[in-house]
Amino acid sequence: MSSKNIKVTVAILTFNGEKYLEEILKTLIKQKTKFSFSVLVIDSDSKDKTLDIVNKYDKLFSKKNKEFRVIKIKNTDFGHGKTRNLAIKESKSEIVAFLTQDATPISGNWLTNLISAYDLDNKVVATFGPHIARENCNPVIKRDMENHFKNFGSNDIPVIQSIKKGEEIEGIVGFFSDVNASIKKNYWLKHPYKEVSYAEDQIMGKEILLSGYKKAYCPMASVFHSHTYPTSEYLGRYFDEYRGLKESIGFVDSVTILKIIPNAIKKFINDACYIKAQEYPFKNLIKYLCQAFVMNVYRQMGAYLGARYEKMPQFLINRISMELSMKRRINV
Fold first, then answer.
1. How is residue 152 annotated by DSSP?
2. Which residue in 153, 155, 154, 174 sits closest to 163, CA to CA?
3. pLDDT digits (tens, 9 = 90+) for 89-107
């Protein structure tokens, strides 16, 4: 296949992604499109069966005359923005679509739906689609995810987002998630991803609007995606989230040290009412209630500490952060 004929490159960044990777690639090979697309996998030195799966699908894509490429990098060279920049640089297409290694397109029309907004307005330079929680997801996280994406609007047509010159970005207008997204290469050439430790996509979403361009929410381009961590890891996850939001877009939650427990209890009561209304079996009910309480405490603690990470000693950041802890385990 000539690279000149490829309209979209689907880029997947992997590290030990065997759990869902075959499911994702199986869905990609069945995509129904009127345009040609290729798949690019950038692997950060996986130690599991990721590369075995990749090699298997390299052959399957080749049989369908679809380009499938693999780039291997050192784990220490990975960066959320840095590696996505590499993916776009190495792509041979006008559009690059991103999936994470645990985001599975729901239908064979995912890719067509994801890029459909580009035909509606030539100022649209990026698109993103909703995340649908997997079956094993905690019910509170599932609820919050559903409510989040409902806020963007329509269930069947793209919603184009823009701001007027001089207007401030408020609420979710600046939201952009490259778990399930696409971006035009011509825009990226002038506005590459920032090489930050976290929330590179949120920076990209804001910069698109501030630079006078538009992005679009494509509700028909859904993926299955949700995280179910051991409860003990949520403090690190929330710490990383709020640290990244402050570092990238300057967002600071208003929680104070005296409000951590009162805020957590208030939010837990709301979550408990929701969980009880779902009529789970008693065993599951108790499990989800306990998870909800701990998660709310950790969220408040993570918000408080993440907003003050510059004042914390590095050894404590290393101790709390889930991302840094993972890197230590990898590089030991």
1. T
2. 174
3. 999 999 999 999 999 999 9
Is 3.90.550.10 the CATH classification of the domain at 3-224? Answer: yes
90 near 209, Cβ under 8 Å? no
| Cα–Cα separations (whole angstroms), residue 291 to 97, 108, 265, 305, 331 | 34, 35, 13, 21, 31
The whole-angstrom separation of Cα 270 and Cα 265 is 9
CA distance 150 to 175: 13
Region at 90 (left for phi over 0; alpha for psi -120 to 50; beta for the rest): alpha
Label residue 171 exposed, middle or buried (CB < 10 Å: 0-12, 13-18, 19+).
exposed
> What is the chain's length?
332
Q: What is the mean pLDDT of the chain?
A: 92
Confirm if 78 and 132 have CB atoms less than 8 A apart. no
Residue 70 vs residues 2, 41, 62, 226: alpha-carbon distances, Å: 17, 5, 13, 25
Contacts with 50 (C-beta within 8 Å, 6 or more apart), sequence order: 14, 15, 16, 17, 18, 21, 43, 101
The residue extents of the domains of the chain are 3-224, 231-331
Q: Name the CA radius of gyration of the chain, rounded.
A: 20
| Sequential DSSP letters for 258-320 | TTHHHHHHHHHHHHHHHHHHTT--HHHHHHHHHHHHHHHHHHHHHHHHHTTGGGS-HHHHHHH
Residues of the chain with pLDDT under 50: 1-2, 328-332
Distance CA 278, CA 288 (A): 11
pTM: 0.90
